[in-house]
Design goal:
It is built from eight helices and nine strands. It is an alpha/beta fold and 246 residues long. Helix 5 runs parallel beside helix 8 and helix 7 packs parallel to helix 8. This is Glucosyl-3-phosphoglycerate synthase. Its cofactor is Mn(2+); Mg(2+). InterPro entries: Glyco_trans_2-like, Glycosyltransferase_2, Nucleotide-diphossugar_trans. Pfam families: Glycos_transf_2 (PF00535).
């Protein structure tokens, strides 16, 4: 069995982070790490009390100044992780149950698998579906047009997924919310679509952002998909960890 690190990026998620940590620990991974991106609330305290190893993102690669965005936390989290498999989990989940980490890690018994994405229904308010508006209105249409071989991925932007640490260290990480789309396309390009698995995790509940916030997220996601398809679109991304000087 491969060793497993759970990496949870967090910024001001004090109400939910402890429950996410506890659910992850219930699956007995080798470590659960919370990357705290300078939270101003009790995120770090609550995560540590729940049993996580907590790093402020500035503690990892301290000679490299931080950049805004979730992708930065994930990039630094891969550097901090020691497991062969890294499972990423969002800190704002309110419906997390034990078993998710185990399910995402299970397909890696196949040496040809490099990335495993969670498949789930996204609730919206009191409706069982309808969430994931950036996914449905931006990511999926662009992937169908530009990367049709990835059209079957049902949650391309989902924050719950697992990747081989060696694979992650060899890939660039987009600094913002386009990180999931970038990794999905880059794994498919580098290792083939057959190297990507999906596991059904039922239903997920996240906090819902206002349209004003979603517009910026959609623009970042669109930019990374267009850039990976060969368009000359500026993006902000970190070079692969393996390319950094020792």
């Amino acid at each position: 069995m491969s060793s497993i690190s759970v990496v949870i990026p967090a910024l001001n998620e004090a109400p939910t982070v402890a429950g996410v940590v506890e659910a992850a620990l219930a699956d007995n991974p080798d470590e659960v790490i919370v990357i705290d991106a300078d939270s101003t609330d009790a995120t770090a305290v609550n995560a540590r009390r729940a049993g996580a190893t907590v790093y402020n993102w500035r503690e990892i690669l301290p000679a490299v100044p931080t950049r805004p965005g979730k992708g930065e936390s994930l990039w630094r989290g891969v550097e901090a992780a020691r497991g062969e498999i890294v499972v990423f989990v969002d800190a704002d989940l309110t419906s997390l149950r034990p078993g998710m980490v185990r399910a995402l890690a299970a397909p890696f018994t196949d040496p040809g698998i490099h990335l495993v994405k969670a498949d789930y229904l996204r609730s919206f308010g009191d409706r069982p579906t309808g969430g994931g508006r950036v996914t449905e209105l931006t990511a999926k249409p662009l992937l169908r047009l530009l990367f049709p071989e990835l059209a079957h991925i049902r949650q391309p932007l989902g924050g719950e997924y697992a990747i081989r640490r060696a694979t992650a260290r060899a890939l660039p990480f987009v600094a913002g919310y386009g990180v999931e789309a970038g990794l999905l396309i880059d794994v498919a390009t580098t290792h083939g679509v057959q190297s990507i698995g999906q596991v059904d995790l039922g239903r997920r509940c996240h906090d819902h952002q206002p349209l004003s916030a979603l517009a910026g997220m959609a623009e970042v996601v669109a930019a990374i998909i267009l850039q990976r398809s060969g368009r000359d679109v500026p993006i902000n991304q970190r070079d692969p960890l393996d390319s950094l000087p020792c």
